[in-house]
């Protein structure tokens, strides 16, 4: 059975900066596009940056294990080594993390590596990893 893929559309205020961030920094291949949107291959999932400057910049947060996590965010669960490689690459690119790469819920069910950063339009992204995928939904 083929695994379902998700589709996510989100607002940006500059497609050139979105292309540099998603295509350049994160290495997402570009798909279809127009003057007002661009598709990216987000590890097999389709994300679409839509030019919508009036929708950019909302930043509510909730507390999670001592961090102020942006309520509106998206990202991927990577293999641990992929997560470490991405964290290293983002640090080398002088990424301004809103939550630095670290391990959350240490010694508890659901222990995970996590990091948060913003795209150029202020959309929050979280990339995380579990040493054991069985812990993804652990209580």
UniProtKB/TrEMBL annotation:
<dbReference type="Pfam" id="PF00903">
    <property type="entry name" value="Glyoxalase"/>
</dbReference>
<dbReference type="InterPro" id="IPR029068">
    <property type="entry name" value="Glyas_Bleomycin-R_OHBP_Dase"/>
</dbReference>
<feature type="domain" description="VOC">
    <location>
        <begin position="4"/>
        <end position="130"/>
    </location>
</feature>
<protein>
    <submittedName>
        <fullName>Probable dioxygenase</fullName>
    </submittedName>
</protein>
<dbReference type="InterPro" id="IPR037523">
    <property type="entry name" value="VOC_core"/>
</dbReference>
<dbReference type="InterPro" id="IPR004360">
    <property type="entry name" value="Glyas_Fos-R_dOase_dom"/>
</dbReference>
<dbReference type="GO" id="GO:0051213">
    <property type="term" value="F:dioxygenase activity"/>
</dbReference>
<keyword id="KW-0223">Dioxygenase</keyword>
<keyword id="KW-0560">Oxidoreductase</keyword>
């Amino acid at each position: 059975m083929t695994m379902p893929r998700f589709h996510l559309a989100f607002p940006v205020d500059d497609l050139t900066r979105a292309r540099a961030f998603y295509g350049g920094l994160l290495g997402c291949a570009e798909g279809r596009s127009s003057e007002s949107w661009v598709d990216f291959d987000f590890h097999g999932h389709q994300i679409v940056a839509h030019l919508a400057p009036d929708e950019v910049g909302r930043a509510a947060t909730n507390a999670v294990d001592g961090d102020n996590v942006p309520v509106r965010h998206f990202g991927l669960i990577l293999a641990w080594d992929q997560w470490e490689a991405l964290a290293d690459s983002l640090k080398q690119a002088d990424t301004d993390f809103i939550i630095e790469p670290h391990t959350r819920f240490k010694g508890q069910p659901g222990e995970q590596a996590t990091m948060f950063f913003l795209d150029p339009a202020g959309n929050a992204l979280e990339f995380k990893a579990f040493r054991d995928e069985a812990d993804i939904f652990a209580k």
